[in-house]
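Technical note accompanying the year-one report. For the benefit of new consortium partners, we illustrate the data format agreed upon in the data management plan: each record pairs a sequence with a structure-token string. No post-processing was applied to the example shown here.
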Amino acid sequence: MNDSNSRIKELLEINQELTQLKDLDLLLDHILKKARRFTNADAGSIYIVENGRLRFKANQNDTLSSRLPPGKKLIFSSFSIPIDNRSISGYVALTGEILNIPDVYKLPDTVPYHFDSSYDEISGYQTHSMLTIPLKNQQGVVIGVLQLINARNERLEIIPFSHEDEPLIIYFANAAAIAIERAKLTRNMIIRMINMAALRDPKETGAHVNRVGAFAVEIYEAWARRQGISEDQIYKNKDILRLAAMLHDVGKVAIPDSILKKPARFTPDEYEVMKGHTYFGARLFSERLSELDEASYIVSLEHHERWDGKGYPGHINPITLKAIPGYEDSSGKPRGKSQYEIHPFGRVVAIADVYDALSSKRVYKEAWSEDKVLTTIKEEAGKQFDPSMVDAFFESLDILKNISEKYPEE
């Protein structure tokens, strides 16, 4: 097989991989990683069109990543830029044309766009070659921009991007755009479900569930690497965990308004009713027709279980509400699940949910200080939380703070 056929085969395999991913953020990360590998690019970014502007959504940089301590990730701020002629990405989004620039510091005076060198100055990075590709959907509408930076040869020297690769990367970008639109549809459907719950529970906001989902996958990834779980399995689990974690409280739609909207702490009897949101949520996914259904069932049912066995709802059949035979307590009620009886997805969402709840203002409380939140989570290791998950939480703390900034309450 010649080199051209080999690269076409590689692209077809990559496109097949894109159809398997459901979560938008993980998909963008995967698209960028595969595009960089295909073109041997050192770095890259993805922008998505939102509200008539380009929103910076994904960023990778091998050179800058190599300067970080082991296990740490690049942290970047989310921002947006106009879709116009002034920037390279804006120009590509506006015109729908690919731009292959050998050196962004040597742009001719005749072009309308310019390169913003401020990122290079702040990071100490040096951008030279740049390949910027429009992401077009099936109707030919630009939904985003893929930007690849600093192509490298076998000796890792920076070179211009190959013009011969342009038709292939355009083909890849078109397939990526279709996958992005599908993932956005899935995300929007989940947000609609959450918004439906939010009509009854004002505490259940889109920002909250986006934060909990993003927190959960970061903590899980750090934990899973410590457990020796393969990278492929981690990536697959992160994809379904992110969406399942966003749905952790969807069962609250079955809780009476008198309790759900109460602007104060619950009485013991009200608290017992509120606990039902766990098994009501699990009922929505009880048929478990897919891996996402299975993960959502687990997270809904188990995110209030405790490492010490004092959580709820315990070993319960969510349909009959009876204890699983052999798992009754002394009064015949379902015994709380403990330690490894709780699925890792349940254990990690427990921490993610509590971290966000303590850090956020509620109708019945102010947001806690960061020191108080972190002290509480540390003290609950071995009690409310899996100690190894707590270790992963603190290992991921920098990126969790960055996630909070990306999804502020409106």
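Partners are asked to follow this layout when depositing records. The longest helix spans residues 166-198.
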